[in-house]
Design brief:
Blueprint lengths: L1 H15 L7 H8 L3 H12 L3 H19 L4 H7 L5 H12 L3 H7 L13 H9 L6 E5 L2 E11 L5 H11 L11 E5 L15 E10 L10 E5 L2 E9 L5 H15 L10 E4 L12 E8 L1
Antiparallel strand pairs: 1-6, 2-4, 2-5, 3-4, 3-7, 6-8, 7-8
Helix pairs in contact: 1-2, 1-8, 4-5, 5-6
Length: 290
């Protein structure tokens, strides 16, 4: 996969000159491809054009500067490649739904739109571990019975939740091939990243049931509302699942024409899920859209 090496070199060049004027021809030269070929490879693997990637990385960096520096907004705008604070504010508001000054005032480093630098591991994941263009489906409501808990990226209790679910699965009236669900009950558009990089959210893991009758005591229940969903397929181990979410919430939400809905996103584990450590496992991620 020589093109991954070329993309890595091109992105390294972009990152080294992110606060400077960047020319497509120089990026292509760094990657070792013609501009024509690099443009097509970049869009095919990463899911967006080079210019779009650069702007979103600059906007993401500007978020950190707004929160963790005393720089004036006009200075941050210039460092981010914008000719004026007005142009910067328009682009910022388009991406984050708030102005730079309001973002600074809110003092909340949002997970949504936090576009990270793509390293080699992330590039390989985009090339092989995720469908970068989701399919849109229409679902009826789904009944789920399971266990609820609060977890975070630094203190992940999801394995314990899943183990607890396995212990009580035989007591839940469901078919042997019933789908398993991981449901995020925290609005990701409101989730903040702490200074140490931690993200906390509420999660319910469960199994699909026909109704909530005859459930054992202590089991939590959840109704997933019907509607339209954008479905991404994660391919690989559970350990790399966060990289798929980084793409969805750090990249896809910034350029998709779909409008996010307020329903909760969730994961489905069906017969294609071969185990947490199996590189051939597949997990579908459902993002609610209007």
């Amino acid at each position: 996969m020589d093109y991954i090496v070329s993309l890595e070199k091109a992105i390294e060049y972009i990152e080294q000159h992110l606060d400077e004027e960047l020319f497509p021809e120089d990026i292509a030269k760094a990657g070792g491809y013609s501009l024509y070929h690099l443009t097509h490879i970049f869009t095919a693997v990463i899911g967006e054009p080079i210019g779009s990637y650069i702007q979103k990385r600059r906007l993401s960096n500007s978020c950190k500067k707004l929160l963790y520096s005393n720089k004036r907004i006009i200075d941050i705008a210039m460092e981010s490649g914008f000719g004026s604070s007005e142009a910067f504010s328009r682009a910022f508001k388009s991406a984050y739904d708030v102005s730079p000054s309001a973002y600074r005032k809110n003092n909340s480093d949002l997970y949504t739109g936090s576009k990270k630098m793509l390293d080699r591991e992330s590039l390989l994941h985009l090339a092989e571990g995720i469908t970068i263009r989701p399919r849109i489906v229409e679902l009826d409501k789904i009944f789920v019975a399971g266990i609820r808990g609060e977890t975070s990226t630094l203190h992940n209790i999801l394995p314990e939740l899943w183990n607890s679910l396995l212990e009580i699965c035989s007591q839940i009236p469901a078919s042997s091939d019933a789908r398993r669900f991981g449901i995020c009950e925290t609005d990701r558009t409101e989730v903040s990243i702490s200074k140490d990089g931690n993200v906390t959210f509420s999660e319910i893991v469960g199994i699909e049931v026909d109704s909530f009758g005859c459930l054992p005591k202590g089991v939590d229940v959840k109704i997933i509302p019907g509607g339209r969903y954008a479905v991404f397929t994660h391919k690989g181990t559970v350990a790399t699942l966060l990289k798929t979410y980084d793409y969805i919430w750090g990249s896809w939400v910034l350029f998709t024409k779909e409008k996010l809905d307020e329903r909760e996103d969730f994961e489905i584990y069906d017969k294609r899920f071969l185990g947490a450590d199996n590189v051939d496992s597949q997990i579908d991620i459902y993002i609610p859209v209007k």
